């Protein structure tokens, strides 16, 4: 009864050869979109934190990226609001920028829900401008600087994925 192990190893060998070749035929859209962003590694890591990323079509991908950006923007907005509350008046302009960024992302997520895909790229650019505006001319603390950098990259990802529509 030496046949069974041989068959199993044949099957394993066949799978080894087949899987990479089928995978090579269909590179993930997520990877193609991340190649069009300012920081490929950051983009890939962020997108693939969502289990829907492998094999995602453009509708799933834009949902993944806009949600990531929305979560990040809301989180950073909350952080800045806390700093302003404890006396960091110079961050008020930043808070205004993030209020706006969060509102734009909310609007875009609502549009996705109602299957409307207009002006997503220009609104993504608007977010990018707000976020870099926050970073400008401020002696901002390390906590905000890092968050702002992340958010800038996420806004750029929003722009790249919007270009699919
Ligand atoms: C990446 O950008 C190029 C140049 O703008 C464009 O032709 C291409 O379609 C983009 N790829 C994706 C996946 O969006
Ligand atoms: C913002 O995005 C970065 C990169 O994906 C991540 O490390 C960070 O945890 C995110 N923050 C929130 C609140 O989602």
From TrEMBL:
Keyword Disulfide bond belongs to the record: yes
Alphabetical keyword list: Disulfide bond, Signal
Region forming the signal peptide: 1-24
Listed NCBIfam families: PME_inhib (TIGR01614)
Name of the molecule in the record: Pectinesterase inhibitor domain-containing protein
SMART domains attached to this UniProt entry: PMEI (SM00856)
SUPFAM superfamilies (alphabetical): Plant invertase/pectin methylesterase inhibitor (SSF101148)
Any GO molecular function: enzyme inhibitor activity
Family label: Belongs to the PMEI family.
This protein's record includes keyword Signal: yes
Domain spans labelled Pectinesterase inhibitor: 26-161
InterPro entries, per the entry: Invertase/methylesterase_inhib, Pectinesterase_inhib_dom
